[in-house]
Amino acid sequence: MKNNVRVERAIKNITQGELAEQIGVSRQTINAIESAKYVPSTILALKIARVFGKQLEDVFMLEDQD
Amino acid sequence: MKPHFLFPYWCRYLGYGLILVHIPITFFGKMHGMNNIMDNNSGSHGLFTSEHLFFIGTALMVVAGLFLVAFAKEKVEDKQIWQIRLDSLRWAIYLNYLILITSLVFVEDTGHILELNLWVPLVFFVIRFRWIIFRLNRSLSRES
């Protein structure tokens, strides 16, 4: 699964730490999600999308191999 | 994510303290000729003998310390940390049983097999868990 959390975060002009704080996770988790090293749970993905005011599939996309 | 059954964050430092404190106690005990009661030929039998108390003061202190280090909450305990915890625990159990089964087949000294069983899961869990967290922190500082 790929995502554009980094892009959305840049548009909204917030840091990894601020995003992490808003959704109640560690900064490491945001970094791991952005680097596609960690696939978030549905709840976490929904929370991230809500912070950006986007639909889930605007932020997280399935890849062919998923 | 509610981290159930984990000690508060500060317990990690209490754990490190217990591990450090055991070093001079062990050193002092060895200087006064205390043997490990897990040695079959230690000659010490029964509860609350001086050697049994020495064992409580050292080995169990380290195990309690390792236990606190292993199962204290991180500053932010989220699902990713939880997953790393579970993965590390799984590998620790695999390794422990691999060593246990191998030593049950090839080693006669049951006292030391028990001692090994006491350390291996906790030590391996702590090393693997802290290593993964360290790598996450390193990649975080590289990003910023």
What is this entry, summarized?
The complex is a heterodimer of chains A (66) and B (144). Helices cover 59% and strands 6% of the residues of chain A. Chain A has 66 residues and is mainly α.
Tell me about this structure.
Chain A has 66 residues and is mainly α. Chain A has a single domain (2-61), classed as lambda repressor-like DNA-binding domains (434 Repressor (Amino-terminal Domain)), CATH 1.10.260. Chain A has helices at residues 5-12, 16-23, 27-34, 42-52, 56-59, and strands at 2-3, 60-61. Chain A has a two-stranded antiparallel sheet. In chain A, α2 crosses α3. Chain A is globular. Chain B is mainly α and 144 residues long. Chain B has one domain (11-143). Chain B is built from 4 helices and no strands. In chain B, α1 (11-31) packs antiparallel against α2 (50-70) and α3 (79-106) packs antiparallel against α4. The longest helix of chain B has 34 residues, at 110-143. The radius of gyration of chain B is 18 Å and the shape is globular. The model of chain B has no long low-confidence stretch (mean pLDDT 85). At the A-B interface, α3 of A face α3 and α4 of B.
SSE diagram, text form:
The complex is a heterodimer of chains A (66) and B (144).
Chain A: E1 2-3, H1 5-12, H2 16-23, H3 27-34, H4 42-52, H5 56-59, E2 60-61
Antiparallel strand pairs in A: 1-2
Helix pairs in contact in A: 2-3
Chain B: H1 11-31, H2 50-70, H3 79-106, H4 110-143
Number of strands of chain B: 0
The tally of beta strands of chain A, per DSSP, is 2
How many domain modules of chain B?
Answer: 1
Could you give me the name of the CATH homologous superfamily of chain A? lambda repressor-like DNA-binding domains
Helix content of chain B: over 70%
What would you call the shape of chain A? Answer: globular
Low-confidence stretches of chain A: none
Number of helical regions of chain B? 4
